[in-house]
Amino acid sequence: MSRKKHYYRHLLSLLHKHQHCRRAIRQIHSHFLVLNTENIGILALWNSILKHYSLGAFPQDAVSLFKYLRNQSNLMSFDSFTYSYLVKACANMKRAHIGNQLHCLSAKVGFAYHVHVQTALVNMYIDCGRLVEAKNLFDEMPERNLVTWNVLITGFIKWGEIEFARAVFDVMPEKNVVSWTGLIDGYTRMNWFHEALWLFRKMVVDEGIKPTEVTLLAVFPSIWNIGCLEFCQMVHAYGEKSGLNMMDIRVMNCLIDAYARSGSIESAWRVFEDIVDVRRNLVSWTSIISAFAMHGMAMEASDCYRRMENKGVKPNGITFLSVLNACSHGGLLDEGLQFYRKMVDDCGIAPGIKHYGTLIDMLGRAGRLDEAEKIALGIPSEIGNVVVWRTLLGACSFHGDVEVGERVTRKIMELERQYGGDYVLLSNIFSAAGRFDDSERVRRIMDEKNASKIPGVTVNV
Fold this sequence. Notes:
Structural class: mainly alpha
Largest sheet: none
Order of helices and strands: HHHHHHHHHHHHHHHHHHHHHHHHHHH
Helix content: over 70%
Number of domains: 4
Number of strands: 0
Low-confidence stretches: 456-461
Distance between the termini: 91 Å
């Protein structure tokens, strides 16, 4: 091997080693510039540079390099890889007009019928939101492969065009697990949960296509939104048989959540216990704590948090939100306040609006309305939310606290005046306290403000 070829290979190995470091890639790029670009194999090296620029954080560098190379006196003959990487750069930049120029240029130099270049162009138009251009190009392609079909399907799904995606799916000459998974994910995202589960069953039972872990992750939201325990058990059994449960901890974590939402906390706990200690991550612990919380098992959630802490797993804001919810619904006020202080003081986690809402709900349920009001007043304005004040107003109504209820209602009116439920709650608080004139006054104000009211429904028994 010549010395120059050896040097090329050395630079190429450095390029792959430092593919995520822009500074290193630029240094290697500069070495290429001082070499003789007519040497055999140099295009592969430039393509490697273009690839890393295209897929990195600065895809515009790929376009700039291509312009430079085209302007050299020893004009290089670019190949399909070159144009595919450049089109990907345009997709990442969301620059359809540059992609359109590359489309024209690639056709001019002979890639109008190249399936990989054309597929990259379809993907580029979709990523840029140019669905009509993508579909037109797809229709004009004399040859399409499975990737081309899947790109179009997932592209339509990405932009919420599920019916177009289904139409493409139905006429595909061949479908693979990617095709099915993409459509299942699309129906799940559109909240068409029954259709997603029907497709999953058809894929596995009728077509005999084995789902991957990505397929299982895509179908789980449909399972837990419907609360279908049978489907949860089916997916669990398949995961055990195929080994996906052991391969991907995300599947096990989703199973915990799916069982809990489907009403079987016992099954959720068994799944958690089946995960060996070394594989349990923060999501595993948070999922089981959340499962106990949604089933009103506050002590179990609290004990599970302490087990997690003893294992050296550091909680995050979602973990604390789950355990705070458990304490709120389980009436463990003192323990809930301890968890809140631990989150803020020990873990340095800034509370979000959901943490504040749960804390106020917890105090409100216990009748400590003055403390809850003080916390509500201290919520930073940039994350403030009228729902928090409505939670407190509901607690005032439950405990019959007129004084705090009036102050809370005034605060709500500063934020939003058109929701009739606020007026109704305050009116009921006055009525319960025997202040009927004030109750009627609030009702009149509600009518004058034309505040929205939820119409009553007559139920025939």
